[in-house]
What we know:
Layout: E1 3-4, H1 14-22, H2 42-59, E2 65-70, H3 73-85, E3 92-96, H4 99-111, E4 114-119, E5 142-146, E6 148-149, E7 154-155, E8 167-170, E9 187-191, E10 202-207, H5 208-211, H6 224-229, H7 239-254, H8 258-277, E11 283-285, E12 296-301, H9 304-316, E13 319-320, E14 331-334, H10 341-358
Parallel strand pairs: 1-13, 3-4, 3-5, 5-8, 8-9
Antiparallel strand pairs: 2-10, 6-7, 9-10, 11-12, 12-14
The protein binds pyridoxal-5'-phosphate.
Amino acid sequence: RAFNFNAGPAAIPLEVLQQxxxxxxxxxxxxxxxxxMSHRSALYEQVNNEAQSLLRELYGVPDNYRILFLxxxxxxxxxxxxxxxxxxxxxxxxxxxxxxxxxAIKEAKLVGETVIxxxxxxxxxxxxxxxxxxxxxxxxxxxxxxSNETIGGTQFxxxxxxxxxxxxxxxxxxxxxxxxxxxxFGLIYAGAxxxxxxxxxxxxxxxxxxxxxxxxxxxxxxxxxxxxxxNSLYNTPPSFAVYMVSxxxxxxxxxxxxxxxxxxxxxxxxxxxxxxxxxxxxxIGCAQPQSRSLMNITFRIHSEExxxxxxxxxxxxxxxxxxGHRDVGGLRASTxxxxxxxxxxxLAQFMADFQKRNG
Length: 359
Ligand code: PLP
């Protein structure tokens, strides 16, 4: 298998792929694949419910929160959140921390009134703001943060205290990678394709009262209330993707849960950040140290020529996905839950060898 550092879709645990392969043609003796089965069947309902209950258990999701499996990716949530929650005189407040926060803001502006509660643009988005920098208007419908900026490689370690204003987090690139106190959030959402499974399903964890009454002026499929009142089975769900998510959740549980994942991710990223910090400036970390992501490590080499060579040579040695996002360039290693320690050890070794040859 390749050393897969793709940013998304990203690595899926090998054991999970093998388990899915075993049941691919004949799901537990049903005589058909899960993807051929009615989403109204008892077997699929079991998958849907199990994925929810595992997520609830692993993440400590309180009883007054609903777990939804939706489609359209996190990008659709950028619109659904303001469509459901912004009201006249109650704007959506946003913390602008990089490319993904910016996309969420642009989409919200199409829907209704939007306020910027803080921005780190003047620092080229290379850090997350401190709590003191975030100014939340009293009348805000919510405060939106991007928990981990996948492109810039920054991550929140202290989420803002939003008081009575519901805190909403885009956790697309760090959901289930570390413990979070779900009760501090009004709504959490994430496309599954980084830490949870394949693309095609988006997870929303939301407090009951926030999603109980969506405006009836918005299309039915865009209302949270539609999906909440139908157990995410209002229309045909992305059944195979939800099934894969349930396998990934079982895998996380088998590994000891979220606290274990957190430790595992810290161990993995330390190998690479240490190589950057000990390279006497050959490698340059992009994010400011206090905001360094445990999911996406962004770094540069002093010459673009060498960066190109790094990518070329790394590909020859079985590394995939180390090129930085096209908007920012440089190098990026995405080290989601499913990336094995051995891949990070191999990358750290490759970085040391590359520096020796070119430093
Ligand atoms: N938010 C973040 C932080 C992301 O990293 C991504 C995708 O990479 C998205 C949103 C968009 O997700 P999707 O492609 O599921 O719409």
